[in-house]
Amino acid sequence: MSTKLPLENISVLITRPESLANSLKQLITKAGGTAILYPVIKITPIDDSLSLRSITDNLSKFDIAIFISPTAVSITLEKIKSLPENLKLAVIGSSTETMLKKYGYQAQIIPAEFTTESLLQHLSFQQPNVATKEIIIFRGEGGRELLGNTLIQRGANITYAETYRREKNQLGSLNHDQLNHIDVLTVTSNEGLQNLFDLTDSESKTMLINLPLIVPGDRAHRLATQLGFKKIIQASNATDDACIQAISSLIV
Hints:
Elements lengths: L10 E4 L7 H9 L3 E4 L3 E5 L4 H7 L7 E4 L2 H11 L7 E4 L2 H9 L13 H5 L6 H4 L3 E7 L5 H8 L3 E12 L7 H4 L4 E3 L3 H10 L5 H5 L3 E3 L2 H10 L4 E3 L5 H12 L1
Parallel strand pairs: 1-2, 1-8, 4-5, 4-6, 6-7, 8-9, 9-10
Antiparallel strand pairs: 3-7
Helix pairs in contact: 1-12, 3-4, 9-11
């Protein structure tokens, strides 16, 4: 007798950028589910500018580099190829840590939980340790200011290196027929959630908000509530494994 897989006969919508969807897709497939890709965010590298080149050409002056996302790692290291040996590396999420390892680097500063708030609790970023430190934050254009502003308040000198922009992908609208073949929605950011809502045609929004929605944290949970979603499941963090666990909890 064959054992039933945990996500058997379950179709899961993945909304993350296409380049970042493969890992979650594989986990869903391995668990017996069907992954449906609908990348609501498009990632576009920012063309080299004089200001960005002047930053990356002088990385040796920095004490710590924080990478906000796997995309920040891949785009940065494709551009500059190597990092100074003296530079301490910090990440927010496990996927970002894994991407650094892919390029041959090990993060020294890793939060207990994969959130900005948790990273700010790390001993390395407490006021006595971070004061006067030169910190560069590799991120997408227009990212959250909480991390940088808090470190400035603690006495650090912050420089932003914005290497890519996230844009709403120009996809065909989700409609009733498509949603009828989806059992669970997943999002990994507020931006992705808002894009998903906006890209669903007006006649199908009621159907959308009645589907179970997996969110990665408190901020996305609040936005989902504001948008009217009826069944919101908050994963323990933003990792793929936590997303799979949250989906599986629906089936039990």
